[in-house]
Amino acid sequence: MDVQALFAEIGRFDTPTICNALEIVRGARFTRGFTRRQLVAAFPDRPAIVGFARTAMIRCSVPYDSAERKRRQLQYYEYIAGPDRPSVAVVQDIDGEPGLGAFWGEVNTTVHRGLGCVGAVTNGSMRDLDAMHPEFQCIASTLSPSHAWVQVVDVGVPVDIHGMLVRSGDIVHADRHGAVVFTRDELGGLPAAIDLMARREKEILDAARSSDFGFEKLRDALAAAERVR
User: Fold this and answer.
1) Which of 95, 132, 154, 222 has a CA between 20 and 30 Å from the CA of residue 62?
2) Eight-state DSSP code of residue 34
3) Element (H, E) at 137
């Protein structure tokens, strides 16, 4: 499958499933590369978002020079509009109090969606929940009614979203559970890993749902799951 077909395929699954599948692809469990704090999804019932990471840093607490803010904002939008789509904006708020001002609201979600971006993951805040673009998923740490002095500080740099280190061009999968990052090299192995995981889990789930389920049946099911290849 090509990249777009792979995105469509893995976008059918929630982010915990992708984390589990990555364990199979990598051959081991892992403790880095995913968000490690609870985040808030603007549209918790929407399916997962998946795309190429567009990274940036913002701050909200410091007054800005209008001309410089405009220059950096345009630089940022040009970067968002670049090739490799769909994209996911991964934006780190570097303020001492992240989320003081909201970068994400009605205007920015609509602009980003028009530039080929399907969603955002941020340690900052969002607002305008009733007016956000309905096809743009924003996953943020908190809400704020104000945008304060929100401004783009840097573009295309490595960012850290609650323990998830992301570089420009990485692949991000996110939903109401949080987000996980992985490489293009790992992308191709995910569909087969998801299938393998589902077949293994089926052995256990079918046994657990049976009317005569007990420890012996669980033991046998766990052994059967280990034999699935």
Assistant:
1) 132
2) B
3) strand 137-140
- Give 104-139 pLDDT, tens digit per residue: 999 999 999 999 999 999 999 999 999 999 999 999
Residue spans per domain, the chain? 3-187, 191-227
Report CA Rg, the chain.
20
Rounded distance between C-alpha atoms, residue 186 and residue 19, angstroms: 12
Domain 3-187 sits in which CATH superfamily? Ribonuclease E inhibitor RraA/RraA-like (3.50.30.40)
User: How high is the mean pLDDT of the chain?
Assistant: 97
pLDDT above 90 covers a percentage of the chain that reads 100
Using H for helix, E for strand and C for coil, what is the string for 47-85?
Answer: CCEEEEEEEEEEECCCCCCHHHHHHHHHHHHHHHCCCCC
Exposed e or buried b for every residue in 63-88, given b needs 16+ CB within 10 A? ebeeeeeeebeeebeebbbeeebbbb
